[in-house]
Amino acid sequence: MSVLVLAEVDNGVLAPATARIVAGAADLGPVDVLVVGPAAAASAAAALQQVNRVFSVTAEPVADGLATLIETFAHDYAYLVAAASSVGKDVIPRIAARLDIMPVTDITRILSPERFERPIYAGNAIETVRDPQPKHLLTLRASAFRPVATGGNATVEQRDISVAAAARIIATHRTESDSPDLATAQIVAGGGVSVGSAENFKLIERLAKTLGAAVGATRAAVDAGYAPNDWQVGQTGKVIAPDLYIAVGISGALQHLAGIQGAKKIIAINTDPEAPIVKIADLALIGDLFTVVPELIAELEKRKPS
User: Where is the Electron transfer flavoprotein alpha/beta-subunit N-terminal domain (predicted)?
Assistant: First the structure.
């Protein structure tokens, strides 16, 4: 059965999440990718393995317009798939209403063409959902799937489709960063409210830069103004599944733990040996973060190849 994946395009560039969504969708059948953006993003999608065709459309990426666009492709596909991101969460419900389909969202594992796993109760339980509908509308949690490799050679078809949208983008405001994408990074260094200030949070940024890691933060740290909103990890932020998560000054509230449950290894740096994050960590360093983290950075710098 055929699958259409809506590519994640960020500032004109194909987002790393797309390779992960393609990997998950490939278990369902041959994958075509719809890229709404510049030709460079379409070419990047065509270079992904397990992609058969890429449809390239130039249109403004607003939710109602994207829903209309995807609807024009819907009759040719058994599966319409997007990332469980801000875009997917905005577009997929609109398509579901138009096509009268019950979507299955936030999928972390595909068991069969009609059976999927998804987290519920803030990640404290995993629900198995059976979807017997003739057409399936799905969102996949990108962090739950390993990305497909590049080296593919899919064909790119330019489609001239005019889509009327009720809304339009007036302006975009971005946080510039040279660190890896938080949602798909293999290493993440996260800081909590115990860091104390936005100035002190630069210590977490230094640790992340030394490791080539992304920077994360708890909701409390974001609410306190120590870190920008797009660094927030947890139930109300980004859900991550890195190979290594370093939690600095984080107690481990349930809402934060819901966002890091996919982490392969967790290192906790905390003064409280009874903190929830310490109890689930693979390795705990008990001590003052302002002492431990600089020592850790210094040691890592020594071990860097010259």
Answer: 3-173
* Structure tokens that stand for 79 in this block: 């599966």
User: What number of other Cβ atoms are within 10 A of residue 98's Cβ?
Assistant: 13
β-strand 31-36 against 51-57: which pairing, if any? parallel
Phi, psi for residue 17 in degrees, rounded to 5: -60, -30
Q: Check residue 142 and give left, alpha or beta (phi > 0: left; psi -120 to 50: alpha).
A: alpha
Residue range(s) defining the domain that contains residue 144: 3-158
So what's the pLDDT on residue 175? 67
Q: How many domains does the chain have?
A: 2
Query: Looking at the structure, do residues 233 and 298 belong to the same domain, yes or no?
Result: yes
Do 154 and 212 fall into the same domain?
Answer: no
Q: Position 210: which residue type?
A: T
- Chain segment 49-99, per-residue pLDDT in tens: 999 999 999 887 788 889 989 999 999 999 999 999 989 999 999 999 999
What pLDDT, on a 0 to 100 scale, did the predictor assign at position 178? 74
175 and 230 Cβ atoms separated by less than 8 Å: yes
Q: Are residues 40 and 146 in the same domain?
A: yes
pLDDT tens, position by position, 224-275: 999 999 899 998 889 898 999 999 999 999 889 989 988 999 999 999 999 9
- pTM for this model (two decimals): 0.84
CATH of residue 118? 3.40.50.620
Do 154 and 188 fall into the same domain? no
Tell me: pLDDT of 306 over 70. no
Amino acid at 184: T
